Amino acid sequence: MLTRRDLMVGAAAFTGSAAASFLSAGRKVEAREVIAEPIAHGVKSIVFDLAERPTALPCFGGKTLPLWTFQAGTPVPIVRVKLGERLDTLFKNDLPRAEEVATIHWHGLRIQNTQDGVPYMTQKPIPPGREGHYSFVPPDTGSFFFHTHCNSTEHFGRGLIGLLIVEGDEIVPPDGEVVLMMKDWRIGPDGTFLPFSTDEGAAKGGTPGTVRSVNGETSPVITVPSSANIRIRFYNLDPMRISEIGFEDAQAAIIATDGNGLPPMTFESWRLGTAMRVDMLLRTAPPGGSVKLYDYYSKEPFVLAEFKSEGPPKRNDTFDPTPLKVMPFAKFDEANAQIVPFEFSATPTGQAVAAIGAGPGIEIGPLCLAKRTFWAINKQAWPGHDHRDLGPPLAVLKSGQSYIFELDNTTPRSHPIHIHGHTFEVLNSSKRKLPRFRCDTVLLIPNERIQVGLVAGLPGKWMFHCHILEHQEAGMMGYIEVV
Ligand SMILES: [Cu+2]
Q1: Can you tell me the distance from the alpha carbon of 164 to that of 145, in angstroms, rounded to the nearest whole number?
Q2: Which fold has domain 5-167?
Q3: Residues that place a CB less than 5 A from ion ligand 1
Q4: Cβ-contact 326, 425 below 8 angstroms
Q5: What are the start and end residues of each CATH 2.60.40.420 domain in the chain?
Q6: Residue 202 C-alpha to ligand 1 middle, in angstroms?
Q7: What digits encode the pLDDT tens for the residues 180-236?
Q8: What is the Å distance from ligand 1's center to 170 Cα?
C-alpha cells in the first residue's frame, strides 16, 4: 500500500494545514460507465489569509523570496472536496499594500456568477484588512484552481495561486496520484524578483520567468510504485509559458482536459497554454526504471519531472485506461447553434470601450487598470486606457441555448482563451487536426481560427479573456452576458 510518506519526494515544500500533498493514493472502486452522482454531503470550510510570506523553495537555490500566499506554511495549497460537498471559504486580505484589493476567482467552476470572484464585476473587491466569503457546491469533478483576479501578473509571479480538486470521477482507482504544478519564477542575479511585467513582454508573448519549476523544484524526481497506473494532474500555471508535454518511451493516456473526462486518448504530446490542465494515466516503469516528462516546446526538450519506480511491480496486465465518469452537462446542439464571431487582435482601433455612460456601466478601480493596451477582442480593449466604465458585453447569450464561438486569432502570438463559468467543446481548427474535447481555456496558435461549441449557462456577466496575464491586462479581455 502506498503511503503518503512514500510519495513525499518533491512535494514537501507544498504540504500544509488546509491542503494535502501533491500526491495521494487512489481509493474507491465502482462500476463502469457511470454518470457521476454527488458522493458527499456536508461542508468543507477553508480559511485563507492572503499575505506576504518570505519563502525558500528548492528552485530558488537557497534564496528566500517574498511570496504572496493564501496561507502560512503552504506556498501553493491544494484544496480537495468531494463531488456534492459544499466549499465555504473565508479569506482575509493581508496583502502588504494599501491599494492591493483582492477577490478569489475559481477557475473552471460552473458556479453562480455571484461567487465568480471578479472585482467590480461580480462583487466589490476586498481591501487590505477586510474579509471576504465564498460558498458554493462545485457541480463538476476535476482539476481546477483559484487565484485573485486583479494585478494578476504580479500575483501569479509571487505565487498567489492554489489548486482545487473535486474528487469523485474515478471508476477504477489508480495506484496513486501525482499533482504537478508548472510555473516559472522571475528571479534576477541578485536573488530578488525582477519586474513581473515589461512593455516588450506584454506586447509580445509575455515576460518570461528565469527559473523553471514543477512543484517548486526544477526537474523533480518523484518516487512512484513500479509498473503501476498513476494519475497525473498536470497544471500549467505560469503567467505566460506555453508548453507541449510528453513522455519518452512510456504508455500513457489523456483522461481529462481542464477537468473534463473524455474517452482515454493515447498520449503522445499535449500543448498547454497558461491556466490549462490535463489529467493523464501513466504506466510507470518496471522496478528500477524511470520515466521522464518533457516539455518539447522549449528550445531543447526540458525535463519537467522524472518518475522513478520503486518496489515490486503493481501490475502485469495490458495498459487499458478506464475512462473517468462523465459529468452531467447540457448537450451542445450544433444544428441549432448560432455562430458568434470573436477576433483576437493586436492594437485596438480606438473604439475601445467607447460606450462610457451607456447603460449602468461597471466601475473599475485603479488597480485593475493597465496603463497601456496592446491587445483587443472585437476591436475593444479592456480596460481601454483610463476608462473607468465599461461598455457593453461582447455578446449577450440566452441561458440554455447553444452557440458556436468562432475564435479568430489574427496575431502572430498564441493566446489561451478562457471563459468564466462555462466549458467549451472544441469543434475544429483552421490549422490543426484536433480531437473533440471540453475545456474552459482553449489555446489559439498564431493566425488560427477555432470553433468551439458552448451552451450558455447560469445568468450573469462572465469574463472572457486571454490567460497570458499580460495580454489580459493589456486589453485582451471582455465579458459575455448570459440572460
Ligand atoms: Cu494572449
Answers
A1: 5
A2: Immunoglobulin-like (2.60.40)
A3: 415, 466, 468, 471
A4: no
A5: 5-167, 176-310, 334-482
A6: 9
A7: 999 999 999 999 999 999 988 988 999 999 999 999 999 999 999 999 999 999 999
A8: 34
